[in-house]
Design goal:
It catalyses: (4R,5S)-dethiobiotin + (sulfur carrier)-SH + 2 reduced [2Fe-2S]-[ferredoxin] + 2 S-adenosyl-L-methionine = (sulfur carrier)-H + biotin + 2 5'-deoxyadenosine + 2 L-methionine + 2 oxidized [2Fe-2S]-[ferredoxin]. The chain contains 13 helices and ten strands. It is of the alpha/beta class. The two termini are 31 Å apart. The protein binds S-adenosylmethionine, 6-(5-methyl-2-OXO-imidazolidin-4-yl)-hexanoic acid (DTB) and iron/sulfur cluster (SF4).
């Protein structure tokens, strides 16, 4: 599929440079979120085209390198030891196995390998194997991302020195709703780790979940917190809750209106014009049409492969078919020469 020429007005808009702001007001952000749908999507798509190829999507592969038994009580999570989810806990994986997985992911088209551990924070003895994982993934020419919970300044520096590109640490929802979702840590704890990561020179991946029982204001405020940080997170994952039996939130949550989900993506794109916005967890429950709307609203990144951390993901054949239907190509962040040469 070849992309068609846009009419000249739209092209002129798409050619201008987006303004990067860190002073969004509550009212401004809410007005964008609640705008007529066509106006919202037109604005988001225009801004999207100022910084990105609208037909390319960045592809990430997740791996849970340490499953379950987590001391935190996040009300949505299958891996918390506070909930009875029937998920067996495991030890930290052997770095060699992790690197094998990364190579397979690279061969399947992922440019970034995202490794998650179900920890409140890493212990000092965990750092050596974790660093070996980062170095191994980097040696394959891929981008490396980790999510290990709260970090000290020294741990952030060690990860930066190992070559870690991104650290994922979500704020998940608004400050006001946070304590209804997690009680074992505060919203401020999350912001503190984000600051340490940024100070160490690692790029930040930070977003949230929809479907926790939050109100539209909580979604707007979550994104406003991110957009008003001194530096926008380079990557903003927007997850749709995957209800997990045995978790308190699965018992009370109500499904999110798909249009509200798309509005949230559009607001992220408009307030953080140069960040990658990821259509993250929850795609198995979404139609192709809903995913297409998310891409139109400015999402430009997904998780590929059959599994996320502990739950299923659409998988490569479904995603290949979706990309073909929409004329989307995987974004080649590694360059053709880095692919398949290690
Ligand atoms: N332990 C790490 C931490 O504290 O950041 C990282 C792992 S955690 C699983 C990463 C993110 O995945 C969460 O912040 C949440 O946004 C998302 N997530 C976890 N469980 C989910 C679920 N059931 N449905 C949708 N998203 C989920
Ligand atoms: C993010 O925002 N979503 C990913 C990643 N960052 C670590 C995790 C999704 C987890 C979905 C539920 C599961 O598989 O356990
Ligand atoms: Fe632990 Fe992360 Fe799950 Fe919270 S989201 S319980 S910190 S693994």
């Amino acid at each position: 599929m070849n992309s068609i020429d846009l009419p000249s007005l739209a092209q002129a808009l798409a050619d201008s440079t987006p303004t990067i702001r860190h002073d969004w007001t509550r009212e401004e952000a809410a007005a964008i979120y609640h705008a007529p749908f066509a106006d919202l999507i037109f604005r988001a798509q225009t801004i999207h085209r100022q910084s990105f190829d609208a037909n390319a999507v960045q592809c990430n592969q997740l791996l849970n390198v340490k499953t379950g038994g987590c001391a935190e009580d996040c009300g949505y999570c299958s891996q918390s030891s506070h909930h009875d989810t029937a998920l067996p806990a495991s030890k930290l994986m052997d770095p060699a196995k992790v690197i094998e997985g990364a190579k397979a992911a690279r061969d399947a088209g992922a440019t970034r390998y995202c490794m998650g551990a179900a920890w409140r924070s890493p212990k000092d003895r965990d750092m050596a194997p974790v660093i070996e994982m980062v170095k191994g993934v980097k040696a394959l020419g891929m981008e490396a991302c980790m999510t290990l919970g709260m970090l000290t300044d020294d741990q952030a520096k060690q990860l930066a020195d190992a070559g870690l590109d991104y650290y994922n640490h979500n704020i998940d929802t608004s400050e006001g709703f946070y304590s209804s979702v997690v009680k074992t840590r505060s919203f401020g704890d999350r912001l503190e780790t984000l600051e340490k990561v940024q100070d160490a020179g690692i790029k930040v991946c930070c977003g949230g979940i929809l479907g926790l029982g939050e109100k539209p204001t909580d979604r707007v405020e979550m994104l406003r917190t991110l957009a008003n940080l001194p530096q926008h997170p380079e990557s903003v994952p927007i997850n749709m809750l995957i209800p997990i039996e045995g978790t308190p939130i699965a018992a009370t949550a109500t499904p999110v209106d798909p249009f509200e989900f798309v509005r949230t993506i559009a607001l992220a794109r408009i307030m953080m014009p140069k960040s990658d916005v990821r259509l993250a967890a929850g795609r198995t429950a979404m139609s192709d049409e809903m995913q297409a709307l998310c891409f139109l609203a400015g999402a430009n990144s997904i998780f590929i492969g059959d599994t996320l951390l502990t739950t299923p993901n659409p998988g490569d054949s479904k995603d290949r078919a979706l990309f073909a239907r929409l004329g989307i190509t995987p974004r080649d962040d590694l360059g053709v020469h880095a692919h398949g040469n290690a």
